Amino acid sequence: MIRREFLRYLGATSALFISQASSSYANPQEPGAVVRKLGQQARVFVAGVGRNSSEQAMKSAVRAVAEASTDFSWLSKGDSVFIKPALNSGKPYPATTNPIAIGAMVKLLKGKGAGRVIVGDMCGIEHVKLSPEGLSGSSRRLMEHSGMTRAIQTAGGEVHFFEEAGWNGFYEDLPAESRHWKRGLMMPNILKEISHIILMPRCGRHVLAGSTLGLKTAVGYWRTDTRLEYHRDASTFQEKTAEGNTVETLRKKQRLVLSTADKILITFGPDDGDVFQPENGLIIASESVVSHDMVSLAWLLENRKGFSPSGMRGFIDNSWLVARLANRYVVSKLGGWRPALFSERLTKNDIKTIWDDRVLNCAYQVFGGVPQVILEAANNAFPEDLKKRLTEMTTPSV
User: Fold this and answer.
1) How many C-beta atoms lie closer than 10 Å to residue 298's C-beta?
2) Residue 392 gets which letter from DSSP?
3) CB atoms within 10 A of CB 359
4) What is the DSSP letter of 340?
5) What is the pLDDT of residue 215?
6) What are 250-273's pLDDT values in tens digits?
7) Domains of the chain with bracketed CATH
8) What separation in angstroms does the CA of 137 have from each of 90, 144, 222, 327?
9) Distances (CA, A) of 95 to 82, 98, 210, 236
10) pLDDT averaged over the chain?
11) Is the pTM of this model over 0.85?
12) Are 170 and 226 in contact (CB under 8 A)?
């Protein structure tokens, strides 16, 4: 059953559940007030792109924001670089990472002396399932459908798909900060072979997590058994998302996080939903994944203002029950119906401001505090009034 069909099913089923629900079905609130401490200053660079900008304008904006965010002193001639996109499905951008941006980054790295530039991922369980017994589905085929493969290879990059290495093509990596994972995370062996990682997510809504930005993109690395624990023990789904980014490999090798957000998957997600294209699109980049996600989430929320899907579409987008049932469905795909029946309940985050997001609130703890975000323009197409609004949205009142 594909996601869109399942969401139709969820809509009908959830409406029935709600009509019969008692107070015991109420969505539990987040526990207590979140105590936040300030961390270090972190620069986030933003380049503007106009609606329906040319491909060349997009490439120029990507290059500008990347070169503003890092001096590439970490890159020695011949170093290998792995680019991790968002490839949950084979759907086009913004359900997946922008192919133009991927191609621009590959070309930029090659021009600065990188050796192998490898782009890879493993798609969501609805499309690809790896088990000790074998494999179904193909991330390779879905990347081709998304348009990424052609852009990568044209720019001189390579493609790589974690499931093609088989069940034993993964190693255990331990989160540096974790109170919620029972085991280490199974990460793909290719990451041992490369020198640097660049993360290239998208800006979008997620039916389970609320949003899918940089921190959430780490799920694509994980083997099926790690994904099973993640979804099955769902009461700490958001916290495990943040903690999963503290594994040694990512702490030592991830250099830059860059996302294009001139198109936003503004409802549902991660595969389907309404696509919104603001008049002024943004390219967002930072060496800090937490700071990047603060600005990216603020941008998502800014564009959701005044956008309200009607009827069943709005219900599916916002319903805690839809999220809970959808997560049990994912668990069933990962591990069978028995784990699904006994899985923990997912509490959907009602994100009105970035300070409501449990993923970020945990990230502040495990990454040393709330970054003091300093927004800087990477070109002259980032409106000053928008910069001011995003600055206000990402400045903590602590």
Assistant:
1) 21
2) H
3) 26
4) H
5) 98
6) 999 999 999 999 999 999 999 999
7) 36-393 (3.40.50.11440)
8) 11, 13, 16, 20
9) 21, 9, 14, 25
10) 92
11) yes
12) no
